[in-house]
Write a structure and sequence with these properties.
- It comes from Fulvivirga lutea.
- The protein is of the alpha+beta class and 139 residues long.
- It has helices spanning 21-33, 49-59, 72-77, 85-94, 120-129, and strands at residues 11-15, 37-41, 103-106, 109-112.
- Strands 2-1-3-4 form a four-stranded mixed β-sheet.
- β1 (11-15), α1 and β2 (37-41) form a beta-alpha-beta unit.
- The longest helix has 13 residues, at 21-33.
- The protein starts with 10 loop residues before the first strand and ends in a 10-residue tail after the last helix.
- Residues 125-133 have low confidence and may be disordered.
Length: 139
């Protein structure tokens, strides 16, 4: 099991089905945002509840907001139950098919990519917030 680290110059793309249409399109857009894309397929890499907490905090979303409420996994595990925040994060950690759409993380910002083009918000945000060191500026 590998450990995930957030590197500021690396775009981290987290999804549970890279072969889905949304997964493929989001990956293509990711490569236009950054030359350094680290893809995390949740079917092969398990994120800890601590990492999920960090991700949902970056997204400024509640864990249920990133879950596919129409999925069989959601209906069986979550729908009629009342979970604590930790319980929902634990469910995400152990049931990757709960994730509704890819998540992209870049320059300490995260975007929930319900549409593949949502990832482009990182490009705009990262360029406006990125400060060029004085010795590299072209004035």
């Amino acid at each position: 099991m590998s450990s995930i680290q957030f590197h500021p110059n690396e775009l981290l793309l987290v999804y549970n089905d890279p072969n889905s249409t949304t997964g493929k399109q989001t990956r293509a857009y990711a490569k236009s945002v950054s030359n350094n894309v680290n893809e995390v397929d949740l079917r092969n890499v398990k994120l800890t509840t601590t990492l999920w907490k960090e991700i949902v905090n970056m997204l400024k979303l509640h864990p249920e907001e990133i879950m596919d409420k129409g999925s069989k996994a959601f209906q069986e595990k979550i729908a009629d139950n009342h979970y604590t925040m930790t319980g929902l994060l634990d469910a995400l950690a152990h049931t990757p098919e709960l994730l509704k759409a890819p998540i992209a993380i870049y320059h300490n910002r995260a975007v929930f990519c319900q549409k593949p083009t949502d990832i482009l918000r990182l490009e705009v945000n990262s360029k406006t917030s990125f400060k060029v060191p004085p010795h590299l500026r072209r004035d």
